Amino acid sequence: MRFNFKKIAVALLPFLSFAAAEERDDPSSEIVLFVNKDANEKDISSTLMIFEEYQIPYTLKEFSKDGYTGNFDFLYKDGQPRFHALVFPNGRVAYKGNEAWKSSLTDEQWAQLEDYAKQSEARIVYLNEYPHELTCTQVYHSYGETNPNSFDDVQQVTAPASTSMAEEINGLNFDTKDIHHYPAEANPNTVNTCEVEPLLFFEKQLPNFPEQTWAAVTAKRDGLEMIAFYLAFGDWSKASTALNIIWLEWALGKNFKQIATTGDDTKSAFGKTSDANVSTAAGVILVTLSTLFTMIVTLF
């Protein structure tokens, strides 16, 4: 009996946890990831899985909670912008400080990155983001302050008809079980300075959320184009894989077939996420099998 170990390994990718992200610089990449190495590794693992599974070139830069003293010359080659998408899988390169979440980058460094995005027309992607006026939003009715446990309410995630692949997204029956999330709404202080549109909704969940709230948005502010997702991207969730497909297409303005180097298009990639509600037991079994597989490969 002959085994195709490459196919087996790829099939197991959604159930494996990646080790700590390592810096890399792919000359052919259009995407650069800004990662906080002091944050939870699971914040980045879902994104790395889709890059590996579909063999998508990317560049990854790590930043420490101690700050960044380097420059952003890596954004350019021969004086020209290299990247079409700046991706922040840890929200704003965030880590948990003694009293609050903080960014590894200074305000001046953020301004430099925003200037790059404006001048090069690169799009900005925030994953695991918290609602903020910078993305033209705020936490829904300040429930985060009065009832922080409401962030753990299980809510259905749905897509309006205007969202690409809405029917397929809604077919995933995606909810927020075991996923920390932050229901958002429009920020009234940014009405005159922002254009914001909901991309995904959290469905109402009584008593804390008596109406639909925003799970993801696209926003334009000060010449910037942004997309923000107000929920964690779990490496155990195939629905999170589907969300990665959404932002990749938006960020690069391409069909998934033009992004992946495996020949997969948007529909075939979504097809692989159709069993989004994988049970924990099944996940444990598959991880165990993957461990045995690793032992077999090592021994033989």
UniProtKB/TrEMBL annotation:
Residues in the signal sequence: 1-21
Superkingdom: Eukaryota
Residue ranges of domain Agd3 CBM87 in the record: 33-250
InterPro entries per record: CBM87_Agd3
UniProt entry tagged with the keyword Iron: no
The keyword Transcription is annotated on this UniProt entry: no
Keywords: Membrane, Signal, Transmembrane, Transmembrane helix
Segments passing through the bilayer: 278-299
Protein name: Agd3 CBM87 domain-containing protein
Protein species of origin: Anaeromyces robustus
Lineage: Eukaryota, Fungi, Fungi incertae sedis, Chytridiomycota, Chytridiomycota incertae sedis
